[in-house]
Design goal:
heterodimer, A: mainly alpha, Alpha-D-Glucose-1,6-Bisphosphate, Chain A, domain 3, 3 domains, 4-stranded mixed β-sheet, 18 helices, 5 strands, about 70% helix, globular, disordered N terminus, B: alpha+beta, Nuclear Transport Factor 2, Chain: A, 2 domains, 4 helices, 4 strands, about 35% helix, about 25% strand
Chain lengths: ~550, ~150
């Protein structure tokens, strides 16, 4: 959290045997907490159904719950007391294992508690109110609240990985919210289509299915809103928050949006070309397709507006991630098109639906291709400005890596089919028939790799210097007053992690931002102490380690 | 810089042309060809084709006509399958006197996005009865009688 980020003790914790002790302690703590929670929820389940069960011989179940609660519970309490003591926490607070434990446990607890509560509410709509199913949700909600309280504790909360657990929680909320909304809207569209085609014979009432999806949508939205706005995840710019933002805006929502567009286009193409299949089958994916496109666009547009307010690195990473996702769609479209083309070459005795396969490939190629053209802008791909984009080389290396992996797998498949064809003496057609998927993907991969290799070679001959190398890992800045501007500038120019030590005496004439950045220019050290000193002077002291 | 920018542009044009060519050829080939050709019905492959077509079209009476008499004697009717997007390609056909085995690659659910269909290798066994090839065993999707599919 923001309050703990500015905590005074940010130096790393003592390692060695202490690290081993911490790993073992937190592993034991996590195990005992999970066992105790499952025992408690089992007992609570029995408590909630105490006057309803007519016949029960489940002594083993009760014994398990009692053992879990009464043995693991006190042990968890003891372990927690040992780790939570002032003396222990003073040692462990700065260790990275403490936030990792909290993050894992609170994420697990949040998942168990929300899934259990939301499905309980969704079931209550159809099956009626039954307190029995609430037990797991209640116990794990308490576990989550407990870990959330520890995470936010002003004196004992972790000093490393600021904002990681709430950021993950906001992602979980967003996933539930968007997923629930997609299913609700998709169900509505589907039922509208079904009234036209009249093909459905038996179905639950539509309002019921929509309402059940909306439970997840509303629950997820609440969870997201709490973490995103109330806990301020929206304005966080830690490394973790930035990665998460790029994942949401550049990859996840973008992929959902593109998938929706692609499925919609596929249905339209099938309608236009007049498939020899029932109209209800053709229109079947339309509900989810339209809903994915709409909700994906909603999430995308909202997060894209946040990305525009972030640093150049985040903006560029986001753009490159979107280009990569579009490229993946376009490439698989090429692969499927080649696959469909090869399917016509073998004389099948029963042919299947090659047209539908081809139209699927074409829609992926069209949607992916257009989105790639818009995000990558290939006509100006080699201008100096673009070559100097931060992260471009990383992007190219990732493309080469993925291409190599796909090529390896498809070549193995093709080789296997070739040898089995040679060894068992099947017909020549059967080789193409059995390896056409792999051949399609290999073609697409070769095209992708060829284009990016040309880009790579061109980049190397251009005048742009290598990407900025991080010469400084950490900067400790001694300053007075509000130093946010200086921190941002130092971070932007060096890429280093910046820690601020506040001066007790107020310094009236601090050096300006440009002077501090200029003083760091050319310095190369793992850790640098910067003292924004008296009368506008800057002292830069490289430190060991 | 102009000359340097030339190389990726040329590569891009080349790649776009390749993709366009693939798309155009695929569209023309896929949309101009008719269904699969009829295989000579006196061969084992031809019988497999006729039998499978009848099963896919749920024309069980015609399909019965292709079964060997030993099966028809005590046919315990299987639940009919709905078969969609089935694709069958002959791998090999072996004739051994009055018995034959036709090996096929069968792909189910093609027509989604290429990867969702799953392909496996299956076999039909046939027997010659009165100068015609008759089906003895089939892949499970295409069974008409429960007792068929157990090759003797």
């Amino acid at each position: 959290m923001t309050s703990t980020a500015a905590a005074p003790n940010t130096s790393p914790a003592v390692g060695g045997v202490q690290t081993v002790r911490r790993v073992i302690t937190y592993l034991l703590l996590a195990t005992t907490v999970i066992i105790a929670a499952s025992g408690l929820s089992g007992l609570l389940e029995r408590l909630l159904t105490v006057n309803r069960v007519e016949v029960s011989f489940d002594n083993y179940g009760l014994a398990t719950s009692l053992a879990s609660a009464l043995i693991a519970g006190p042990l968890a309490g003891l372990l927690w007391w040992l780790t939570w003591r002032d003396a222990a926490m003073a040692r462990d607070r700065a260790s990275v294992i403490w936030p990792v434990y909290l993050m894992l446990m609170s994420t697990v607890a949040l998942l168990v508690f929300t899934i259990s509560i939301f499905s309980w509410v969704a079931d209550a709509i159809t099956a009626g109110w039954d307190p029995y199913g609430l037990a797991v949700g209640i116990v794990w909600a308490l576990v989550w609240l407990w870990h959330d309280w520890m995470w936010r504790h002003p004196h004992k909360g972790p000093t490393r990985l600021p904002g990681a657990a709430p950021a993950l929680a906001s992602l979980i909320g967003l996933t539930y919210g968007a997923g629930g909304l997609v299913f609700a809207v998709g169900r509505l569209v589907d039922s509208a289509i079904e009234t036209v085609t009249g093909a459905v014979l038996v179905s639950d009432p539509v309002w019921q299915l929509v309402l059940q999806s909306l439970v997840w949508a509303v629950g997820g939205a609440l969870l997201w809103w709490w973490h995103w706005f109330r806990l301020g995840m929206r304005t966080q710019s830690t490394g973790f928050a930035n990665v998460l933002l790029v994942f949401i805006a550049g990859i996840a929502s973008y992929a959902v949006f593109a998938l929706g567009l692609m499925l919609t286009l596929w249905v339209i193409l099938k309608l236009v070309t007049g498939m020899p299949e029932p109209i209800a089958v053709t229109l079947d994916p339309l509900g989810i397709a339209l809903a994915s496109a709409a909700v994906g666009a909603l999430v995308l547009v909202y997060h894209a507006s946040i990305v525009t307010g972030r640093s150049a690195g985040v903006r560029s990473a986001n753009r490159l991630a979107s280009a990569g996702v579009s490229l993946a769609y376009a490439a698989s479209g090429v692969g499927v098109t080649v696959n469909a083309l090869l399917a016509t070459s073998s004389n099948s005795i029963i042919e299947g639906n090659i047209r539908s396969l081809l139209l699927g490939g074409l829609s992926a190629l069209l949607v992916g291709g257009v989105l790639w053209w818009l995000t990558w802008r290939p006509l100006e791909a080699s201008t100096l400005e673009r070559v100097a984009t931060p992260g471009r080389r990383i992007y190219l290396v990732i493309i080469f890596g993925v291409s190599a992996l796909v090529a390896l797998i498809t070549l193995l498949v093709i080789g296997f089919q070739l040898f089995s064809f040679l060894l068992d003496g099947g017909s020549g057609e059967s080789f193409v028939e059995r390896s056409r998927q792999a051949l399609g993907l290999l073609t697409a991969t070769v095209l992708v790799a060829a284009y990016h290799f040309a880009i790579w070679r061109n980049d190397r001959t251009s005048d742009v210097a290598e990407e900025q190398v991080r010469r400084i890992d950490r900067v400790t800045l001694v300053a007075s007053g509000d130093s946010a501007e200086i921190v941002d500038a130092v971070r932007a120019s060096t890429g280093a992690r910046v820690t601020v030590l506040q001066r007790a005496d107020a310094e009236q004439r601090e050096p300006d931002v440009a002077a501090i950045v200029a003083a760091l220019d050319g310095v190369e050290a793992a850790h640098v102490l910067v003292v924004a000193g008296v009368k506008g002077k800057v002292a830069v002291i490289p430190l060991e380690g | 810089m102009k000359q340097e920018a030339g190389r990726p542009d040329r590569t891009l044009i080349a790649i776009l042309s390749i993709i366009a060519a693939i798309v155009v050829i695929a569209l023309v080939v896929v949309f101009t060809r008719g269904g699969p050709p009829d295989v000579d019905p006196t061969t084992p492959e031809g019988v497999v084709q006729s039998y499978s077509r009848a099963m896919v079209d749920s024309d069980f009476e015609s399909a019965r006509g292709f079964l060997a008499s030993e099966l028809l004697g005590d046919c315990d009717r299987a639940d009919p399958n709905t078969i969609q997007g089935l694709r069958m390609t002959v791998i090999s056909s072996t004739i051994n006197d009055d018995k034959a085995v036709v090996r096929l690659s069968m792909e189910r659910g093609s027509g989604e996005f290429g990867s969702s269909g799953y392909t496996s290798e299956e076999a039909f066994t046939m027997v010659r009865e009165g100068g015609m090839w008759k089906v003895v065993s089939t892949p499970w999707e295409l069974t008409l009688c429960y007792n068929q599919g157990i090759s003797k």
